[in-house]
Specification:
The chain is α/β, with parallel strands linked by helices. The chain has four domains: 5-76 and 147-225, HAD superfamily/HAD-like (Rossmann fold, 3-Layer(aba) Sandwich), CATH 3.40.50; 87-142, Hypothetical Protein Ta0175, Chain: A, domain 2 (Alpha-Beta Complex), CATH 3.90.1070; 233-458, Rossmann fold (3-Layer(aba) Sandwich); 470-564, no CATH class. The protein contains 21 helices and 25 strands. It has an eleven-stranded mixed β-sheet with strand order 14-13-23-22-21-15-20-19-16-18-17, sandwiched between helices. An eight-stranded mixed β-sheet has the order 5-4-3-2-1-10-11-12, sandwiched between helices. A four-stranded antiparallel β-sheet has the order 6-7-9-8, covered by helices on one side. Helix 17 (498-507) packs antiparallel against helix 21, helix 19 (521-528) packs antiparallel against helix 20 (533-544) and helix 20 runs antiparallel to helix 21. The longest helix is centred in the middle third of the chain and has 19 residues, at 335-353. The relative contact order is 0.08.
Length: 569
């Protein structure tokens, strides 16, 4: 299933004149029976919504007050995502005769004729607030709060990324959340600005338009849109005539092949970068540690410690985290067995959450050798969105090569590389006249469309690898050092750099470790002293995880540091 969730606005989209038709409720029930999630996103206050919406229980979560409140209909729990409105703001608006004035937990709303007064009051009070239009309404919210931020929180709660979501709306304040959805749809009565960003517009208005979308989702998962949404295409490079070569992010398997040292891992890393830039989650199987310092990828395992299937799956539960599985700690002969254990679990996770969106397998001839009899069972035919990297395509199990539909030959003998692949898969290969090796280019073969191979200048990554200053690893940060003190200041252990931090972290008692973890001290130090926002963001996510054991958080933070910095042995 491609799309796992539907996100819908309420007024003007799901409802008409405050009412939901019986047909809409039945359609939402059918959506849930199909195994999909449903999220309601509205500018209304929660109490007001619940008074007019008889089917809130059909939604996994409700985002109210234009992104400021998230409500769980099952548990009745409310989460406020921003501070309450300023009392001075309310008093000044009332003093100037602004009426009606609706005051929510966060949102303040009135009608459009009062827009100039609202903006004047915000300016005069020096408030960091924003004014959002919604048809004839004017809404005041804290800066940075909108339907998109509320939806992002809801998706994280449900373990989904935006790429599994179809959104449908009608009004100006729906713009932000629709742009975050993988596929945006507008009902027929939508504002022109919403229709402009939509992949398509329903033929029917309001709830009937939502029913139309639900019917198509259940029937064929919006198959007609496959590969046609330009904002999601992944740039591979340019042909010799300067036309771009792009790949849809779904429905393809890629083989990158060529001699040792020709830049296969660098090319694969550049594709990974662009996938991550578009918020696609990537899992890299890295037998030789070639991707250990790739930006925005958390590495599990090293030459001293083998990763486990459980910890890989645990980390991937967070849609924002990309994982590199370093297999240096696993003997070469045992790696196919580890892979055979990991892949079915990743398949199950993909079925449940749609993630990880892409799987990258380096040294595929070692991981999935042609001599290995279990290969066909390890990588099923239906598995898509996989990149295999290998020196010897003819040494990879034929059952694994069969789903490949894009081959990138890199290095000085592209014809030989492609012929090895063609022979291994019984594919007819016609080599174009005049096509030859060019030092700055690769040769690409799209098998599915029947095109012959062609030369392409591959898109370069923004950086091959990140090199951090050694002072953070081994130097003396002086007054920026980290101090392990623990509850009641029972310790005063100074970590003047990352090496010492990791050494102390390994031996410190559990209560001291948790004391700093729960206070957010680690992420704060990484951000302000080490000046590494990525490391800080990843540590902050771990600090908020209640499902991890203390030893797991300790180990994972150390792995993060090792992946980002070259620590001495």
């Amino acid at each position: 299933m491609r799309y796992l969730a539907l996100v819908t606005d309420y007024d003007g989209t799901l409802s008409s004149d405050d009412r939901l038709s019986k047909k809409v409720i039945i359609a939402l029930e059918r959506l849930r029976v199909s195994g999909r999630r449903a999220i309601l996103v509205t500018g209304r206050q929660l109490d007001d919504l619940l008074a007019v919406c008889p089917c809130a229980q059909l939604f996994d979560l409700v985002v109210a007050e234009n992104g400021a409140i998230v409500y769980d209909p099952a548990s009745k729990e409310e989460t406020r995502l921003a501070n309450p409105p300023s009392k001075l703001l309310i008093q000044n608006l009332q003093a100037r005769g602004v009426t009606p004035l609706e005051i929510g937990q966060v949102l303040v709303a009135t009608h459009e004729p009062h827009r100039a007064i609202v903006q004047d009051v915000i300016w005069e009070l020096g408030l960091e607030a924003q004014v959002i239009g919604n048809r004839g309404a004017v809404m005041i919210l804290p800066a940075g709060v909108n339907k998109a931020t509320g939806l992002e929180y809801a998706l994280r709660e449900l373990g989904l990324s935006r790429h599994e979501v179809v959104g449908i709306g009608d009004a100006e304040n729906d713009h932000s959340f629709l742009e975050r959805c993988e596929c945006a749809v507008a009902v027929a009565n939508a504002a022109p600005s919403i229709k402009d960003i939509a992949a398509f517009v329903t033929s029917a208005e309001n709830g009937d338009g939502v029913i139309e979308l639900i019917d198509e989702l259940i029937a064929d998962d919006l198959r007609r849109l496959g590969g046609t949404l330009p904002q999601h295409l992944i740039l591979l490079g340019k042909r010799t005539d300067a036309t771009t070569v792009q790949l849809p992010p779904y429905g393809h398997n890629i083989l990158v092949a060529g001699p040792s040292g020709c830049g296969k891992s660098t090319l694969a890393a550049s594709v990974i970068e662009r996938l991550i830039e578009k918020d696609y989650q990537v899992c890299v199987i890295d037998p030789e540690g070639d991707y250990g310092t790739l930006r925005d990828v958390v590495t599990l395992g090293n030459q001293w410690r083998a990763p486990s299937v459980g910890e890989v799956l645990s980390i991937l539960e967070d849609p924002k985290i990309n994982v590199g599985v370093n297999l240096l700690g696993i003997p070469l002969g045992d790696r196919p067995k580890f892979f055979a254990q990991l892949i079915p679990n990743l398949q199950a996770m993909r079925t449940r959450t749609g993630r990880p969106h892409w799987l990258v397998v380096d040294e595929a001839h070692h991981m999935l050798p042609s001599t290995w009899g279990h290969a066909a069972a390890v990588l099923p035919q239906q598995l898509q969105e996989t990149i295999l990297v290998t020196v010897h395509p003819d040494h990879v199990a034929p059952a694994i090569l069969k789903p490949i539909d894009v081959v990138v030959a890199i290095g000085h003998s592209p014809e030989e590389t492609l012929r090895k692949f063609a022979d291994a898969t019984d594919q007819p290969l016609t080599w174009p006249e005049g096509l030859s090796y060019q030092p700055t280019n690769v040769v690409v073969w799209f098998l599915r469309d029947g095109q012959p191979p062609f030369s392409m200048q591959a898109q370069r990554g923004r950086a091959e690898r990140i090199r951090h200053l050694r002072k953070y690893a081994e130097g003396n940060l002086r007054w920026h050092s980290f101090y392990f003190r623990g509850p009641d200041n029972r310790h005063n252990l100074k970590a003047q750099n990352l090496v010492i931090f990791c050494q102390i972290a390994q031996g410190i008692d559990e209560s001291t470790w948790l004391y700093h973890l729960h206070r957010g001290d680690y992420s704060r130090w990484f951000r302000h002293a080490i000046k590494d926002d990525f490391l800080a963001d990843e540590a902050e996510r771990l600090e908020r995880r209640a499902d991890l054991e203390p030893w797991q958080t300790r180990q994972m933070i150390e792995e993060l540091i090792n992946a980002r910095y070259t620590l001495p042995e």
